[in-house]
Amino acid sequence: MEGATFDKLMQLLAADREQAALEYRRLHERLTRFFDWNGGEDPLALADQTMDRIGNRLEKNDEGPIQNVSAFALGVARHLLQEDARQRKKAAEAGAHWTSSGQSSSNNEDEKERMDEALLHCLAQLPLDRRQLIESYYVHKGNKARSHQQLAVEYGITVNALRTRALRVRQELERAILQYLERKSQ
Amino acid sequence: MSDDSGQLRDNFLRYVTGGMEPEEVLSFEERLVGDLGFSDAAALCEQELIDAYAAGELNEADTTALQHWLEGSPRRMQRVQLARSLQEIGRRKVQRQWSMRLVLPIAAVIAGLAVLTWMTGRRFVHHPEPASDAVAQKGVPAGSERPPEPPSSPAAPEQVILVVAERVRGDMPAQLVTPQRGSAVALQVLLPADAADNPYRIRVAKSEGSRGAVLDQRGVRPVVTRDRLVLNAHLPGDALTPGSYTVVVDGAQESFVSRMTVHMSSDK
Fold it and tell me: A–B: how many Cβ contacts below 8 A?
């Protein structure tokens, strides 16, 4: 996306530049989830493409201004999802290598070992407070809901806030593990 | 559409498994992309469904429905594997916490009894043994003179022997241990601080001679005692006789060794 187009998109998202950047990241994240939950081949790339197309639309401006960025983004995303599905179908019919897990040849034991090793490594790299939180989150002495309730009390937060924090740490851990596994496979 | 977490969970499950009507899908997606809070809540539902699936906590219908969706993405299957690994870490933490609650007081009692027995052990001095070798004899031929039997006494409690295992690096000093003759022994092997927490094989054998191991136990899981990993094993009475012993601990990735010299506490 060119600079001027990007500026237009920022202005559309919020008047304040910093707020606009935050809105951009949040919209990108929601789009990424949308593509992930709907089987997009590469959710991050599809979210990038969506934002690019929004920028292109702003540049042309031949259909009037965009009233609701999220609603417009959803329309673009649905379209991209259909394109993505068609491309993958074509690739499969052409006999190209299908990289979905259904064709994965690694056995479960190997996968478990790789994951365990990556997890231990990346857990050790996490800041102590986050490591303790995610480890404690998965310690259940009996009832899981009660364990989470007790943990939330220890942290002085609501259960919902605890779940959200655990999710953020979990996402950070997943990214670290993916990078670790990619480095190891090189 | 209600945002109640249970309702959202059910709706999310129906959404990703194709169980929603088209109008519902449109409405759900508008909120997913347009509402940050709703999107975050849906992401939480996804994570908790993956955790529940990995733990086998879902009912059969939900498991089957979700399995198809999960297996359609290598990323999601990795997340399932990650959930299982985190749950395993959680289970082991709970086991260790329970072990510490049980092991520490029991170890304290055993150690106390061992010290008490050692301090008062000389009250139960037996008839003098002819020679230390004779005591080690087993299977004395019938009709031959047997050493006099010691007077009957109450069975001595198990004695605790603690040895420190180290990485093999040449000559190592031997620890002197003085178990009471005839007492069963609770052998505790203290592993290095960075030892892996996995099952070990413990072997105890005399350093010289070829009489075989007095102990060879596999699959011994360490327990945490004061933040250190300790292996516990048990030797019956009279398993240890005076002499030098080597204690070898074999794990999946490395081995540790300890040496001990046994000197019976009732020997002169």
Answer: 99
Helix (H) or strand (E) holding B108: helix B74-120
Q: Where are the domains of chain B?
A: 5-72, 77-126, 159-262
Which residue of B lies nearest to A131 if distances are taken between CA atoms?
A: B86
Q: Say which CATH topology domain B159-262 has.
A: Immunoglobulin-like (2.60.40)
ipTM above 0.95, yes or no: no
C-beta separation of B259 from B245 below 8 A:
yes
What residues 49-108 of chain B have any CB closer than 8 A to a CB of chain A? 71-75, 77-79, 81-82, 84-90, 93-94, 97
- Helix A144-155 and helix A159-185: axis angle, to 10°? 100
Q: How far apart are CA B161 and CA B118, in angstroms?
A: 12
Q: Which of residues 4-33 of B touch A (CB under 8 A)?
A: 15-16, 29-30, 32-33
Who's near B178: CB < 8 A, 6+ residues apart?
Answer: B118, B262, B263, B264, B265
- The position carrying tokens 């002819």 is B130
Using a CB-CB cut-off of 8 Å, the residues of chain B touching A13 are none
Indicate the residue of A33, A68, A177 with minimum beta-carbon distance to B82: A177
Q: How far is B5 from chain A (nearest CA, A)?
A: 10
Closest chain A residue by Cα to residue B78: A115
CB atoms within 10 A of CB B238: 16
Please report which helix (H) or strand (E) contains residue B164, including its range: strand B159-164
CB A101 within 8 A of CB A107: no
Q: What does each of the 186 residues of chain A score in pLDDT, given as a tens digit? A: 777 888 888 888 988 889 999 999 999 999 999 999 998 988 999 999 999 999 888 888 767 788 889 999 999 999 999 998 888 887 777 654 444 444 444 567 777 888 889 999 999 999 999 999 999 999 877 788 888 999 999 989 988 889 989 999 998 999 899 889 888 877
Give the model confidence (pLDDT) of B139-156 as tens digits: 444 444 445 455 545 555
